[in-house]
Design a protein that fits this description.
Distance between the termini: 13 Å
Strand content: 25-35%
Shape: globular
Number of strands: 6
Amino acid sequence: MTAYDTITDALNGLRKNGYVLDFNIAFDKLMCSQNGVCLNPEQFEITDHFRFEGNTDPADESVVYAVESKDGKIKGVLVSAYGVYSDPVSDDMIRKLVVH
């Protein structure tokens, strides 16, 4: 597993490995505004993740997820805050993301 010092380093490293799409959580699915793709929890896997903790600012606390569709055709990243800054998500999505 590669270690990254910053979120930017993690995103750049993942992009070099083909994780080029940007996903956002939309309660019960992941959405990509770049191409309109939506993935339900059963349609993707988290292939890697990197957690970053802000040294002085709690707003810097985030997790970068490497996301791949189960058919391997779609690869992207999800940057999600955790703690009080986290996005509202469905129970299925929580189970999918917490495992990692």
